[in-house]
Amino acid sequence: MKRxxxxxxxxxxxxxxxxxxxxxxxxxxxxxxxxxxFQLKSADVYIDLLTDSGTxxxxxxxxxxxxxxxxxxxxxxxxxxxxxxxxxxxxxxxIVPTHQGRGAEHLISRLLIRPGxxxxxxxxxxxxxxxxxxxxxxxxxxIIDEAHDPDSVFPFKGNIDLQKLEAVIQQVGAANIAYxxxxxxxxxxxxxxxxxxxxxxxxxxxxQHGIRIIHDMARVAENAFMIQQHExxxxxxxxxxxVKEICALTDGAxxxxxxxxxxxxxxxxxxxxxxxxxxxxxxxxxxxGMHTYGGLAGRxxxxxxxxxxxxxEEAHIAARVYQVHYxxxxxxxxxxxxxxxxxTHGVFLNARTFLPHIPQTSFPAQALTVALxxxxxxxxxxxxxxxxxxxxxxxxxxxPSLELVRLAIPRRVYTLSHMDVVADTIIDAYxxxxxxxxxxxxxxxxxxxxxxxxxxxxxxxxxxxx
Length: 466
Prior knowledge:
By secondary structure, the chain is α/β, with parallel strands linked by helices. It has two domains: 23-52 and 314-457, Alpha-Beta Complex (Aspartate Aminotransferase, domain 1), CATH 3.90.1150.10; 60-311, Aspartate Aminotransferase, domain 2 (3-Layer(aba) Sandwich). It has 17 helices and 14 strands. The strands form five sheets. A five-stranded mixed beta sheet has the order 2-8-7-6-5, with helices on both faces. Strands 9-12-11 form a three-stranded antiparallel beta sheet. Helix 5 (126-134) links the parallel strand 3 and strand 4 (138-141). It is globular and about 60 Å long. The mean pLDDT is 96. Belongs to the beta-eliminating lyase family. Its cofactor is pyridoxal 5'-phosphate. Its EC number is 4.1.99.2. One of its GO terms (molecular function) is tyrosine phenol-lyase activity.
């Protein structure tokens, strides 16, 4: 009988020891951290799935490139290499480096949003929406309804609902829309891709009304891979070709190089409009640094340029997504409630179904992150009501339809054996789910509260919510 096994398409040449703590230690450590996994020390975490941002393992080629860093204050040769790579693989004409993706979000918000304007998009992301709001904008969600249904298996839940978008245009007027914020592989929806067919329809509609599309492209290669696998007509196209086709349907992009580009720090703003680029060049000097380094060392830009070329290699991107799906399928087979279909950068647990006894106002997803750490030292992140924040008009919570725990898998860091351990931990927590209590705030920061908030545990409530 022929057997077929899968192996990671790389070999390990350096290791970092992991430390296991006891359940008793972990209970004390998470309590001292205010029941917020962001406040844990990394040394106290066994398997860290808090984020895939800046946590990937760089390749030997990237480390070699770090030695070629040109640390000139202006005109670094690494900038011109990065610019060349962006033009080659993404097709954008101009780039402005930033220290990370949110630096680019800040710049584009300052450049395009005037107070009172609107920014429709395919579901919010935390830092993106905050920059838009701080610039005086109002985010409007125009993603398809399937994206809000954790049980829907529609393969392109990142798609934009054209009727919703057209209704926004008719209601507020195209002149009052700063731009369309279009994300590839929508993070808050569970790493869900958008189809090229949908993007082309969106492009036609926005061009009719003179509305720019700004692309959140942090995980564009992952989206391209899902198009290759699931969209008819693209099964024989390379990921690199699909990536360039995606970018060609947009006017500019914000990029966190800490995701697809496989670096620990860095990002950029990419543009096609020369006049807007000149404004961005001037503004970046105020907040980041010279327009040829933007808060980065030359070595960081070199590593990012090399990482972009590696991000579209077929073996790499297939293995990256396969590892995520391996974990997701283990959990589904065990009956653990996860968001469907499995996305590209992580597995998302459906906390509403996992913890039916905890009301949303007692933060079930946050409570589940605590339980996973206490059970097996696994660090994850809440993507529900805590991350959604408060309505700037009413002061009440935003109440998202999805209450999720994200298990974001760093690229090229863990093996399938680590995924087996993660699955065992989650299954154990699920079997003991009615022993998990809800939470209440003891400290609630004004901005992006999920990073620094602190909580206390509530009395245990075991009866499911009616």
